[in-house]
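User: Can you help me understand a structure? I only have the sequence.
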Amino acid sequence: MINVTTENFEVEVIHASLSTFVLVDFWAPWCGPCKVIGPILEKLEAEYAGRFTLVKIDSDEQQELSQAFGIRSIPTCVLMKDGKPVDGFMGALPEGKLREFLNKHIPAGDQLPADAGAEEVPEILDAADVPAALARMNEALAANPANDDLRYDYVKLLIGTGHLTEAAAAMAPALAQIPVPLRFEALQQWLNAMEFVGTDPRGRWSLAQFDEKIAANKRDFETRFAKSRLLMVQGEWVAAMDELLEIIMRDKKWDKEAPRKTFVAILELLTPPKPKAGPEVSGKTAGRIELAGHATVQMDEQAALVSAYRRKLSMMLN
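Assistant: Let's start by predicting it. Here is the structure, written out as tokens:
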């Protein structure tokens, strides 16, 4: 169970819901029914063992969030997935009804989510395979431009293989959506980093040059941010997040929260893909992000890393 405010809402609810269901419980300390349903929800969260995350929002203290969700009475619970509400209920339902509500949306522990009609895109490609894969994906996307899953994989491969102009063009329809899906915002941040390194003189600096300037002024956020972008391009995702955290720790609002937005983007890029039935593949994506491959433990480690850094960001924002 996580307490959520406006500061950590994007991380703990929007971003988290991209990889699992998030149940948002709007409550208040004075609310009797809230005290009844709260312990039951916490019990169910433990029982469902990671199949959903429970977050609690004090509707009195976080009125901006309550208004955003149109909360008129409490307790009210909203189930989130992929950044959007999928269902909800008001009042203190009994445990049996709560189970019915959750089971209606959350697959059983031994089930995998169906991915009907999705394009299969290989996670690992030899260099010789890339042009053929890009051509195949481009053709499929032209035939089905509404397939955002395919568009995401296509743009990700384009960026990871240095086709930046093509990536920007292919991503444009997704960026025109309101709101822009978080996963495409993440790709945009990655593309921004690639373009920065390719055009800015600092893109050719050594890490030692960055560290020398930062040592002289720990609040040189321009240099820290530039270093984080270089680290992103080098595939040093954890080091990039650590540098961004240094900025956020000192000034959360610097440059219109660009460090936070970039940090969230890295979390999204690092989030392991949803498991699919069939043979598993080992290795890395085109962006050199570690994937689970044949070893499930690697997937678990990747998910644990994302979770740990999501918590770090949340602590910095509180």
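Now, to help you interpret it: The beta strands are 2-3, 21-27, 52-58, 76-81, 84-90. Confidence is low (pLDDT under 50) at residues 110-124, 276-296. Let me know which part you'd like to focus on.
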